[in-house]
Amino acid sequence: MQFLNAINFSYPLLASATETADSSMVIASVLLSLVVIYFASKVGGELSNKVGLPPVLGELVGGVIIGVSVLHLLVFPDGGADSSSSLIISFLQTTAGLTPEAAPQVFAAQSEVISVLAELGVIILLFEIGLESNLKDLLAVGIQATVVAVVGVVVPFAAGTVGLMTLFGISPVPAIFAGAALTATSIGITSKVLSELGRLNSKEGQIILGAAVMDDVLGIIVLAVVASLAKNGEVDVSQVFYLILSATGFLVGAIILGNVFNKTFVAIADKLKTRGEVVIPAFIFAFVMAYLAAAIQLEAILGAFAAGLVLEETDRRKELQKQVIPIADMLVPVFFVTVGAKTDLGVLNPAIPSSREGLIMATFLITVAIIGKVVTGLTVFGQPEINRLAIGVGMIPRGEVGLVFAGVGAASGVLSKPLGAAIIMMVILTTFLAPPLLRFVFPETNTEVALNGATNTALKIESSPSLIATSHEDRNTEIFSDSHES
Hints:
By secondary structure, the chain is mainly α. Helices cover about 70% and strands about 0% of the residues. It has 20 helices and two strands. Helix 4 packs parallel to helix 15.
């Protein structure tokens, strides 16, 4: 009850719903929703992992299955659903005595609570990514990775935005949002395949990893800008410049001040003796930074990411990462499954004439997503023997960062159903395509042959794929850091 009352302070809809709804029924519906969410995320993640794909993709597909597209176990009013279309509410009416009159209020309250948990999940996700993004590695990747990263952001963003506006008549703000979703690069799956191929420490592998890490940072800045534009509902050039400068200044300022705060954080953590002496001060700092970002018209997730970057430099980094992981494991799946559940893939059904435009948009976005990253390999200079095609292919998968764009866009209401579904399809297909394409452009070299000088016999040397992404492939920069240390 205290939890619900606390949320009521910020969410009038939830307040009005819980005033008339039976609190026990609200709690029961939330608990059932979490059971469904965790079950879908675990089954989907395990199946995805078994076929060599990132678990987050399985969580997304699991959300699609339990959501509005298939089973209607988890539906939300902002997608046009009501209590009668929710199987969880129907189950409560059958088993727990929920009356039809009270069902709409319980449904509204349940949806708001799950949405709040999903928002917390994405804030913690970006905090975790920041904790694993080594700033020294970002600065050390060199000019080649920088050029690849910048081109990998500018080309798909420009092509996607302009194409949607000119070919489909999409208004500027949603077109910009969709174009921004094309800028992301998730390297979890790429790093795993590169490791299996023995190419992680090659020139191509290092450029891919460095550029993708920088893409994450640039993508988060772009997300903060376009999400703020979505709130205003129009494109104001002066506002765009303000947001870009404020987002960049916020990150740079946080990093500079972080050098001072690092020692203070460690000193505070060393003096605390009760449980949570490291993770609680860290979350206080992360949430304060998230609030400050929101206060200057940026996204809260940018503040959480900046907080992670700052605390990554502390002596207690590894301990903090270990303590954040179980919290992220509880809340991050809520975000990804919710994104999937809200995605109505029915709007891309080619059998329905009105849905064909959405399917064409999805095809367009997928094409731009692939070509816009493949061309990045052509920008590599001064390396005549390098595999430029492999570099471009390694930048293709969007993964969890692309899903963050889709989730924020759906929550803001700026994306139409067809456009939102098209972005989800783009994320799914680019992530599916990356492993086989990488294996095609990169011949496997796990096994090499050398001569034993003493016996003149062949020795088989196998490279060890020890640098493989951990659970939630967004732990990508840890791989990048390890490769530099080796």
